[in-house]
Structures are given as C-alpha cells and as structure tokens.
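As a next step, we paired sequence with structure tokens, yielding the entry below.
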Amino acid sequence: MDLFSDAASLLPIPLEDADLAWLPQLPFPLSNAAVLARLIDETAWRADTIVVYGKRHLQPRLSAWYGEASYTYSGLTLPPLPMTPLLEELRRSVETVTGQRYNSVLLNYYRHGQDSMGMHSDDEPELGPQPSIASLSFGATRRFVFRHKAKTLRHAIDLSDGSVLLMRGSTQQHWLHGINKTAKPTALRVNLTFRFIG
C-alpha cells in the first residue's frame, strides 16, 4: 500500500522481529501546541469500559475513534465519527511521511501520569495480517515500551511532542506494546494512531 517512494525522512529503528521507523517531528503548518489544544477541544472524548481477562475496567485515559468503519478491541466496539478537518490534514501529512494509506484514527488523551495503556498488540482481524500503524504524539513525552511475545526481549522509545512512530510488517505479530503509569508530574498528551481498516 505504498503511496510515495520518497518517504525516506523516516529513520529506521533496528529491532528483532519488527519493522519500526521514527520521525522526530511531523511537518505541519500549525505548531505542536496549537494542534494539541485543538485536539483536546475538538475531539468527542469518551470514557470507555473494556474487558481484560474477563473483567470490566474503566480505561485509564479518554479515547475517540474517527474514520470509515467501526473498530472492536477488548470487548469494546467503537462506531466511527466523521473525520474533522484537522484530523484530515493530519492524516494526509502522516500518509505523506510514511508512504502508507490510512482511513481511520484512534485518539487517546493522557491527562496525567496515571493515565496509561496496557500491553497489547494491534492485531485485530480488520487490520489485516501485517498492519501499518502510525503513532503521532502531541504534548508531554511518554515512554512507549515493547515486550516480545516469545523471547525475553524488551525495548522502549520516548514518544516526544510532534513525533511519528511507524509500526508495520510483522511487528504486531511478535511484539506487545504499551505505556506505563508514572509517578512523575506529567503534562497533557494526545496520541493518534492512524490505521487502515479493510
């Protein structure tokens, strides 16, 4: 699904059984602070309950789903909202730098250090066997941790303001990823994961 042959600004991240690439700053006409403020203000945030190991838990963050199709994970089905003009602009910019096509985006709003994301893989059937997922971050830097499913391998990446992390190929097949809670004072952060729902 490559769109562009010149998506070479991404820096490869060597990691066994994974295909990762990194861009420190997404080229965009608005400042990171302006984008963050608009995302917080314009997004229809939800506080959802998910099922983990058969038990229902309130997600430790707010979320929203925009795009062309519903998305189901952890016993939760998210109906799609139409992309806002800002989300459309961000999607086009992310497509340009990654060389991939996306039709949906999951937004997560981390309000403080106790908001987190449990370890998981984005391996739902509607994403296909080797999905390309672009993670775009605005606001406070948070540590993104990887844990191999079959080997004693771990890795971590600091997702900084304005950065893009591209996960593709067999990454979701072999690795779990998440964001841990932290006791450190932490400012607001919004993360967008662009994906293609087939």
Q: What stands out?
A: The two ends are 12 Å apart (CA to CA). The CA atoms of residues 48 and 127 lie 21 Å apart. The chain has a mean pLDDT of 91.
